């Protein structure tokens, strides 16, 4: 607030007119997020839009599940695994949940070490996060294979409402894609951290800009979001 | 902020101090988000506990409103911890927090609309598409 008041006190320089004026007015000192860099603000805004995408998936899942007159397959049994002789309900999904939460923990610590400019620890923790993520995707591939072998298709399954398959493949498939992209993102940034790009001010090959350790936090935001979405999928799709 | 600071330096040095004070009270972090590692470990632990709890809801086969309310409770607590601590939203300025957190709340309106609509569709299907005896 203090800044906004102050800007008005400063004598405004002559502003350009026409098309230049439009560009200048939209790109001038107007700034809503005072102490957040544009990179971080844009990641948050992207995550907001992604929230709406996943909201729509979960909403359509809710609608199909509420409207079908055929009983919904019981996820507790569908996702049970037989270990030894015991059939344990939902165990694979529980393990996947713990793996993803652990990856969030290592990511949070990577951000911390990044700001301390501890290159080795930051890169190691980011790679650990990526490894957890890759494990998660691997287990998801296993889960998909198992269900497809048991006859789950987007248009039907042996246990009940036909929409089960399409909801399942759509929601977990989109989430798994996000995790995969996150793993690639993590490995790319971990490599830059390891090489010391942010200490020597090396320019990125794509943007030719110098990076900062803040990119670790921005990558972290994306990664925590992936974990966050899983919290909702776990609760609403697997447990409900 | 940098642009503002530059202008101020040239023209109104006394006010620049005010800006710095104002920003300092609004938790600025020029060196980025720095919090003790212990905090992350505690949150990590809590996320494990809450996930176990929500798994146990299924393991013990709880049913009905108890099941649904527990699932939602654990879900909201986990989501809150992740956003507030891991994503550092607790330390951001309110302008950012509201800009990001309020729009998803409006999705609840959409949920209400679709639940209402789904009830109606279900009723129609029961009335007109049920197998006749």
TrEMBL record, chain A:
Signal peptide residue numbers: none
Transmembrane domains' residue ranges: 41-62, 88-111, 123-142, 168-194, 215-239
Single GO term (MF): cytochrome-c oxidase activity
Compartment annotation: Cell membrane
Chief subcellular location: membrane
Cross-referenced PROSITE patterns: COX3 (PS50253)
Residues annotated as domain Heme-copper oxidase subunit III family profile: 43-240
Gene Ontology BP term (one): aerobic electron transport chain
Alphabetic keyword roster: Cell membrane, Membrane, Transmembrane, Transmembrane helix
Quaternary organization: Heterooctamer of two A chains, two B chains, two C chains and two D chains.
Function per UniProt: Cytochrome bo(3) ubiquinol terminal oxidase is the component of the aerobic respiratory chain of E.coli that predominates when cells are grown at high aeration. Has proton pump activity across the membrane in addition to electron transfer, pumping 2 protons/electron.
Similarity field: Belongs to the cytochrome c oxidase subunit 3 family.
PANTHER family linked to this entry: CYTOCHROME BO(3) UBIQUINOL OXIDASE SUBUNIT 3 (PTHR11403:SF2), CYTOCHROME C OXIDASE SUBUNIT III (PTHR11403)
Record-given protein name: Cytochrome bo(3) ubiquinol oxidase subunit 3
Organism: Bradyrhizobium rifense
């Amino acid at each position: 607030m203090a800044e906004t008041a102050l800007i008005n006190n400063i004598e405004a320089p002559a502003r350009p007119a026409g098309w230049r004026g439009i560009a200048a007015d939209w790109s001038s000192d107007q700034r809503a997020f005072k102490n957040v860099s544009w990179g971080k603000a844009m990641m948050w805004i992207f995550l907001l839009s992604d929230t709406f995408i996943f909201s729509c998936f979960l909403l359509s899942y809710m609608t199909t599940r509420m409207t079908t007159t055929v009983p919904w397959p019981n996820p507790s049994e569908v996702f049970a695994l037989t270990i030894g002789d015991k059939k344990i309900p939902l165990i694979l999904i529980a393990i996947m949940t713990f793996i993803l939460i652990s990856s969030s923990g290592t990511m949070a610590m990577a951000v911390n070490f990044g700001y301390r400019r501890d290159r080795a620890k930051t890169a190691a923790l980011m790679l650990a996060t990526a490894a957890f993520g890759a494990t998660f995707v691997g287990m998801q591939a296993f889960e998909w294979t198992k269900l497809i072998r048991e006859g789950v298709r987007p248009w039907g399954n042996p246990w009940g409402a036909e929409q089960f398959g399409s909801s399942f493949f759509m929601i977990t498939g989109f989430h798994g894609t996000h995790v995969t992209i996150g793993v690639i993102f993590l490995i790319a940034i971990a490599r830059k951290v390891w090489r010391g790009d942010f200490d020597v001010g090396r320019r990125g090959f794509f943007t030719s800009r110098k990076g900062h350790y803040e990119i670790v936090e921005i990558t972290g935001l994306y990664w925590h979001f992936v974990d966050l979405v899983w919290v909702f999928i776990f609760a609403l799709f697997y447990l409900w | 902020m940098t642009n503002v600071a530059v202008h101020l330096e040239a023209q109104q040095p006394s006010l620049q101090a005010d800006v710095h004070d104002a920003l300092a009270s609004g938790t600025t972090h020029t060196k980025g988000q720095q919090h003790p590692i212990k905090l992350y470990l505690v949150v990590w632990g809590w996320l494990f506990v809450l996930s176990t709890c929500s798994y146990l809801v299924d393991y013990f086969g709880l049913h009905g409103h108890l099941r649904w309310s527990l699932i939602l409770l654990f879900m909201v607590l986990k989501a809150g911890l992740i956003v507030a601590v891991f994503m550092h939203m607790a330390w951001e300025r309110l302008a950012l927090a509201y800009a990001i957190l309020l729009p998803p709340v409006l999705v609840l309106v959409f949920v209400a609309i679709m639940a209402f609509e789904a009830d109606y569709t279900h009723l129609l299907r029961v009335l007109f598409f049920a197998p006749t005896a």
